[in-house]
Amino acid sequence: MDAMHLPKSWPVEQILDNLAQHGFAIIDQAYSPEYTGALVHECSTHLNEFRDAAIQNGVVSNIRSDHILWIDQQLKVAQQHIQALNALSQHLNQAFFLGIKEAEAHFACYNAGEFYALHRDNPQGKNGRMISTVYYLHEAWENDWGGELRLQDKNNQWHIIHPEPNRIAIFQSDLLHEVLEAKHQRLSITAWLRTDQPLW
Ligand code: OGA
Ligand code: MN
């Protein structure tokens, strides 16, 4: 995990406090317009490479209908986001002893009509995912476009999180959540902060 500086706009104490109290935190206006623009461009130019997320190892599931592209070293702009998350992981490890070593991430595209039904990213601690993060990178989002992240916090309260552009939702990977059906194209990067090497 590379050492790197946390973006100045990330309120680390507030993030740690919200994670401790509720199991989730939100960062708004996470990045500069220049960086966000570069990320949108990188995502858009690779949209033709996105694959059906429901198909894994040839097996089709009906829990989700979005399309994804795993982020590797070639995707230089997205790599910077992963570096920022690595910097955040150092704070998370200090505060909560999570033992995060790696981040794995993919772009996701939900076209109109697509969704991700209720799930946990790490049910019963069966994988190394400790913290899930979702960065929303579409250029605009209206409140009636659907596509909300609905999340049950660690005290069993439900929250509706709108996928506002340039927002990052951060939550414990064991929490129950879903993506409601989007009515417009919804672009994001999901990244998991994990204790071991990704399996893919
Ligand atoms: C996921 C997920 C939530 C979102 O990718 O596992 O739950 O808001 N994403 O995109
Ligand atoms: Mn999820």
UniProtKB/TrEMBL annotation:
Highest rank taxon of the organism: Bacteria
Gene3D superfamilies, A to Z: q2cbj1_9rhob like domain
The protein's name: 2OG-Fe(II) oxygenase
Database matches in InterPro entries: HIF_prolyl_hydroxylases, Oxoglu/Fe-dep_dioxygenase_dom, Pro_4_hyd_alph, Pro_4_hyd_alph_FE2OG_OXY
Cofactor dependence: L-ascorbate
Record organism: Acinetobacter cumulans
Ranges for domain Fe2OG dioxygenase: 101-195
PANTHER family according to UniProt: EGL NINE HOMOLOG-RELATED, HIF PROLYL HYDROXYLASE, ISOFORM C
Keyword Cytoplasm: no
SUPFAM superfamilies per record: Clavaminate synthase-like
UniProt keyword annotations, A-Z: Dioxygenase, Iron, Metal-binding, Oxidoreductase, Vitamin C
